Amino acid sequence: MTDIKMKVFRGEEGEGELIEYDVELDEGMVLLDCIHRIQHEQEPDLSCRWNCKAGKCGSCSAEINGKPSLMCMTRMSDIIEETPENEVITVRPLKTFPHIRDLVTDVSWNYEMAKAVSPIKGPDEPDWEFSQFEAKRAQEFRTCIECYICQDTCHVLREWRTKNNGPPCKL
Ligand code: FES
After folding, report:
1. How does pLDDT run along the chain (171 residues), one tens digit per residue?
2. Alpha-carbon torsion 45, 40, 89, 156, what sign?
3. Does residue 98 belong to any structural domain of this protein?
4. Would 81 be classed as within a structural domain?
5. How many angstroms separate the alpha carbon of residue 15 from the centre of ligand 1?
6. Do the domain assignments include residue 110?
7. Best mutation site among 72, 75, 94, 104 for ligand 1, i.e. most ligand atoms within 8 A of its Cβ?
8. Which atom of ligand 1 is nearest to the CA of 50?
9. Ligand 1: distance of its center to the CA of 135 in Å?
10. Residue 57 alpha carbon, nearest atom of ligand 1
11. Ligand 1 lining (C-beta closer than 6 Å)
12. Residue 92 C-alpha to ligand 1 middle, in angstroms?
């Protein structure tokens, strides 16, 4: 077992700071395990979102060392290797979305957009055949796990709020 230092963003509605924690590391841990350990042993009110811990639900996305990633799919051994020796691992919420608290952001805009997409009903004729081409197109949408990392890496969306009277992002 080793001890590492990690800085996690704590605060509400964009106001806050990175707080440093010492975390005991066990073999095979992923970053989400470290966040849970901090919650369990030091900060019971640390907010984060997660569900599957298997890279399937998309809810645990955060910026790890400034890079949007899934916390449950980020091995501590990898992130320690990637972090320069004189630096501390940082975990921040996704910058693109309005900040709620700690590592949690408001991604509800995506659900509003999804409601605006009309469903594919197909033609009215009873002998209509669903082609493989159409099946593949629909399948493409099913591969999205709604982690919204793609939006977090889009500089247009990252800067949009600041330029359009959204709350300034101070993360
Ligand atoms: S907890 Fe579901 S993707 Fe990470």
Report:
1. 689 999 999 999 989 999 999 999 999 999 999 999 999 999 999 999 999 999 999 999 999 999 999 999 999 999 999 999 999 999 999 998 999 999 999 999 888 888 887 777 767 777 777 788 878 887 887 888 999 999 888 888 777 666 665 544 545
2. negative
3. yes
4. yes
5. 26
6. no
7. 72
8. 1
9. 27
10. 2
11. 50-53, 55-60, 70, 72
12. 16
- Please report the atom of ligand 1 found closest to the CA of residue 58: 3
φ, ψ at 58 (rounded to 5°):
80, 5
Residue type, 81: E
Residue 152: which domain range? 2-105+146-163
Inside any domain, residue 51: yes
Q: Which residues pair with 158 in a beta bridge?
A: none
Residue 8: name the closest of 93, 107, 69 by CA.
Answer: 93
Instruction: Look at the chain and report how many structural domains it folds into.
Output: 1
Residues 90 and 18 sit within 8 Å (Cβ to Cβ): yes
Q: What are the tokens at 10?
A: 């704590």
Counting from 1 in the atom list of ligand 1, the atom nearest the Cα of 55 is 3
Domain containing 153 — which CATH number?
Answer: 3.10.20.30
